[in-house]
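Practice record 12: protein with magnesium ion.
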Amino acid sequence: MSILKVLRQIVQDVSTAPDLNAVLSITVGRVRKAMQTQVCSVFLHSQETGRYVLRATHGLNAEAVGQVSLSPDEGIVGLVAKRAEPINLEDAFSHPAFHYIDVTGEERYHAFLGVPIMHQRKVLGVLVVQQHEKRRFDESEEAFLVTLSAQLAGIIAHAHATGAMQTEATSGGPGRLRQDLRYDGVAAAAGVVIGEIVVASLPADLNSVVDRPAEDPQQEKARLERALVAVREEISQVADNLAGRLSKDERALFDVYLRMLDDNGLPLEIRAMIDQGRWAQGALREVILEHVRAFSAMDDPYLSERATDIKDLGKRLLQHLQEETANHPLEYPENAVLLADELTPAMLGIVPEGKLSGLISVAGSGNSHAAILARSMGIPTVMGVVDLPYRRLNGARVIVDGYSGRVYINPSAELVQSFSRIVIDEQVVADELREIRDLPAITKDGYRLPLWVNTGLSADVARSLKQGAEGIGLYRTEIPFMIRDSFPSEQEQIESYRAQLEAFAPRPVTMRTLDIGGDKALPYFPIEEENPSLGWRGIRVTLDHPEIFMVQVRAMLRASEGLNNLRIMLPMVTSTSEVEEALRQIDRACTELQEEGYQVKKPPVGVMIEVPAAVYQTRRFARLVDFISVGSNDLTQYLLAVDRNNPRVAGLYASYHPAVLKALDFIVHEAHKERKQVSICGEIAADPGGALLLMAMGYDVLSVNANNLPKIKFAIRNVSFSRARQLLLSVRALHDAEEIHQELRQSLKAFGLARLTRPAIPDQKIPPI
Ligand code: PEP
Ligand code: MG
């Protein structure tokens, strides 16, 4: 087998192991075999003692596991950890740092190679191989171990986090959780909630099936039986339908399927799992995935292909089990915190309104679209909690801290009490903000700044009006497209657009043409790309599909008949030719409608500045259109080359990076040279510090999420324009995003606006998992 294949195989075996002990034992076994050494061991860092504990070995004495540990100042293992570098020795005994530990039995081994296991810049542990004879491991062996360790680090970290969750091993249900388990993610929507987790499972996705104990094993087995009968029938039906078109060999495959489903096949194992206390779906997941693992690992291509068949059977069974569950809708707890592997905008509707009080997502980051919607709904949210073992947490108590991006599972009474204080303080601030709802955003020295709102969900309209919005600066039209199963017709679109335009008339409503691609997928128009942020997005898609664009523009124009408060905005433009082409189509739609007898007027049309290339062409664009609006969420991602959805680089997504602020400053000046209105609808405008800077730069309108609007208004009403200008001047002199952040925080305090900044989070000494 090639090195690459060996590597892949080991990583695959390890990644599907059920727990940390299995991960480590598979690792040492496979590495020892692949490198043909006598010993392979793993030492892991212990948070409690700060030492590196021998957690698994093949070759050293098994009794030493869990007993032997080294400080970073002890032994060669300690040195590997301290230096965070590989150490490769012909004879470990002659090294000055060598530290002999009796019980390991390592006196027989001379050659030593140790590599650190690094995860997010931290040394998680050390992976060691040893051999009898005195010889240096050669370069390819060293490279192999370093590569493998780098790939295993994430899996080990994840398994470690999962394993640390439980106080005792249990089979079946979620088991007994330790108290105050802290998991770190990305702060995505401010606020604190204390609630109960509801895990969102994707339909027919075995991997997302949650763990749940079987309340009544007999009933679970009966459900399984019904699903089996249905799937057997389906398969026989398909086999009959295809009988004439399949060869004898191909037909035999259906018999194999049916045999797998007969009473001595998979069902036997699934029933045994139910008897151990799992519900039917959970038992099915375990059995199917175990078989898939075993078959995929086989060298014989025919047999390894069978993994796909088993997975397919598993999915079919799951579908039937889920349909049954769907007929008995779940009871949602009062303070439901929805937890998903990857939270999407469409999932926000899973929990009924009024019960949804918090959101957690394993994938995604602070500017993913689900996070943006969560902010507009005012629901505390943490994204990118990559180590959270979500399947085991259905029904667990949780604190979501949307300020610092932390999640506490099974919180203690003291922790709940300290966070309850924040919840009460938040309520007091909200009441105070409600009082200024109908007042204008006007500074202490009389400068008036219009505050508009971003919408997308239908509930946003009422919410925005309640918060005193003076217009809509961005209606994300793709959001209603996302929660359907086909493109809406012209008439359907007219109805939903008319509702927004009417509710806000005569105030302006800026409708953005469809902005799909990136992290916004339509289930009925899939776009599969390696690099979706740089791919077919926004205006690029709609210009390639004039039929979709024209229907949408016609619907917008017809919806505004008699109201005339519509503005159309084009997303993701890069070149003037795109703007010209879109303008031509909008003109054509207008003329056609007028010819058809509709009383429509050509609305103001604007472009979004979201791409660095657009920044440098602001003035040219401004000559072509009526207004400019900055999409700072995308602009930040493209200027900093940081994917807005990737939690791994969330720390680098710096809204206050000097380069971002410089671009924002430049855009406003360039657009004003052409006397065009410039607004901003990215999330930076919804942060009180950011809003003051943007006002000082000269932005004509800030468009923010409905939830943050009162906070922004409060900030503007309590500062003079001249102080905001001074703040901008001092920020311009700073070179670092973090310094700028600090400066903004301190200035808000100095302006008497401390209550708009993040509250002091209780100083608990709880380390992250
Ligand atoms: C932006 O990119 O800043 C923006 C407002 O658009 P969206 O967040 O929908 O991409
Ligand atoms: Mg955008």
